[in-house]
Design a protein that fits this description.
Blueprint lengths: L2 H6 L11 H11 L7 E5 L8 E11 L5 E11 L6 H4 L9 E2 L7 H22 L8 E12 L1
Parallel strand pairs: 1-5
Antiparallel strand pairs: 1-4, 2-3, 2-5
């Protein structure tokens, strides 16, 4: 998934969002109901982190027909604030253990997904220079990993 590495080594193939395998997995995932794309767990290390780690598929449409897509991970703590600590967990998902309680109720989840997180996503895309003044974007929530 590293473009520079794939260009430097003829035996490597770049695995991006347009790769047939990734497209097939994405299409299969899109057919899942929303409640099958979320999970609640806890970290075994007792880190005390609470909130949600969300994964978004983003499409940016610019002037002149430019089109970019990417996967963006955003974390929010139990107060609905951006959490870089939760975002750093994206390599540790396999360590999650079952949790009996969740952090957010249904109304807070709905508010985060429809209002708070899209605005955070817009700011992140602007900050990274992906979303310019003459561009628009659409997003789809791929996964919700709640850390209780």
């Amino acid at each position: 998934m590293d473009r520079d590495e794939a260009l430097a080594d003829e035996q490597l193939t770049l695995l991006g969002l347009e790769h047939p395998l990734v497209r097939q997995l994405s299409e299969r995932h899109r057919s899942l109901e929303a409640d099958r794309r979320g999970v609640v767990g806890r970290m075994p290390d007792g880190s005390g982190l609470r909130g949600a780690l969300t994964v978004w598929h983003v499409q940016v449409h610019g002037s002149g027909g430019q089109f970019h897509q990417r996967i963006v991970t955003l974390g929010v703590d139990e107060h609905g604030e951006r959490s870089r600590d939760l975002e750093r967990l994206d390599d540790s998902w396999h360590e999650l253990q079952a949790a009996r309680t969740s952090v957010f109720d249904a109304e807070n989840r709905r508010r985060l997904v429809t209002t708070t997180l899209p605005e955070m996503l817009r700011r992140e895309l602007s900050y990274k220079g992906v979303l310019t003044d003459d561009a628009s974007f659409s997003s789809r929530l791929l996964a919700w990993v709640e850390v209780a």
